[in-house]
Amino acid sequence: MQVTAPCPISRKQLVRAHLARYVDRILDYILPKVFGNRSAQMAASLPSTFSAMLNAYWAALTNRVGAVAPCSGFHHAGYGFGGGFCTFEGLMEAEQDLLTKNAARKISILDLDMHWGNSTQAIIDKLGLAKQVAH
Ligand SMILES: [Zn+2]
Questions:
Q1: CA distances (Å), 40 to each of 32, 34, 87, 93, 106, in order?
Q2: Which of 21, 63, 90, 94 has its CA 20 to 30 A from that of 69?
Q3: Three-class DSSP category at 82
Q4: Which residues surround ligand 1, an ion (CB under 5 A)?
Q5: Domain-by-domain residue ranges, the chain?
Q6: How far is ligand 1, taken at its centre, from the CA of residue 45, in Å?
Q7: Is the dihedral of CA 17, 37, 52, 120 positive or negative?
Q8: What does the pLDDT look like over 7-32, one tens digit per residue?
Q9: Closest Cα to residue 54, out of 89, 16, 2, 97?
């Protein structure tokens, strides 16, 4: 088993799955995070939190075996809003990174959380990704 430190995800990467204005307002402490604070320290931790999922996607693609991100997928954060305990949608952030870098043509998301990943589906619909797969 190999354990790696996450590399913080950039604003540019975050806006691939989220409304740019929403990303800016969260990271600039204007909007409260879904857990109700405007803490600069909490905002500064978000890029590293979401990079864990992104790093796991890339590790699995590289090692062809698999990888684990010891975090949730944050599947309740919508395109322009947070939900549940989720500020940004980590599954779709990682998915968009691979697709925009042409590292994958198709990606399946297996979400084993007890709840339906409402924001995963909403972002897929918003970005028209289901249509891309159908073609
Ligand atoms: Zn959930």
A1: 10, 14, 14, 22, 36
A2: 21
A3: coil
A4: 113, 115
A5: 11-134
A6: 20
A7: negative
A8: 888 899 899 999 999 999 988 877 77
A9: 97
